[in-house]
Amino acid sequence: MKATWAVLKEQIMHFYLISRLSLYEIKSKNKNNYLGMTWEIINPTIQLIIYWFVFSTIRAREPIEMNGVEIPFFPWLLAGFFIWIFSYQSIIQGSNSIYTRLKMLSKMNFPMSVIPNYIIYTNLYIHIGLLILSIVVLNFMGFYISVYYVQLFYFLLSAYCLLFAISLITSTISTIIRDFHMLLNSVVRMLLYLSGVLWPLTLLSDFPLIENIMKLNPIYYLVEGYRASLFGTEWYLITNWQYTLFFWALVIVLFIIGSSLHVKFRRHFIDYL
Description:
Helix content is 71%, strand content 2%. The protein is mainly alpha-helical.
């Protein structure tokens, strides 16, 4: 627990540094492109269109029922897709964040735990832009802003906490064992098809055990929470309070494990240069 409080304290004390580094990261990443940061919107939008074409146009996907409301496939996909992109990019980039910045860390004087955090913070800016775009598109499609949108703030915070806890673990292991990053990339890509992003897990209702196991995936909680918020179908975090408790228990356990690993090995990270 001592390591957990130490890492948490480092994030609070260096919050201003995290915000500054995240802005620098997003600007430097796109400075050589003519369209600049616009590519952060274009790339995931192209991916969304491809998945929509494959899963809806070719396979003639039927509307999906959410709490008694039928939602056409494209808005249903749109409402959950960009939280997946945020999760995927944060996990992959967070995993590689410390290793790729070891030279910088050897010359700078700030806690290493700040590194995966500001990478996630960078992706948060992009995610908020994509979320606003999604809201505009959904309103044009007849899914108007409602009081349920208040939940989005909660799910944004939930996603951030989960991704930081995961990144503390993966960035530590990836720095020590480089093959882990490649394995993680493959596993997280596979999770796209197992998190209810491209197809509803209710299709497995004839196999309740498999369905329930797949719903233990915390990304599924975030995806369904976003959809409930954007379509105004329910107060997801309350009606699924058992899942909410499970989600936060998992986040706390992951954060304790991640902070313990990070504090234990970070003194040796420079040795991996």
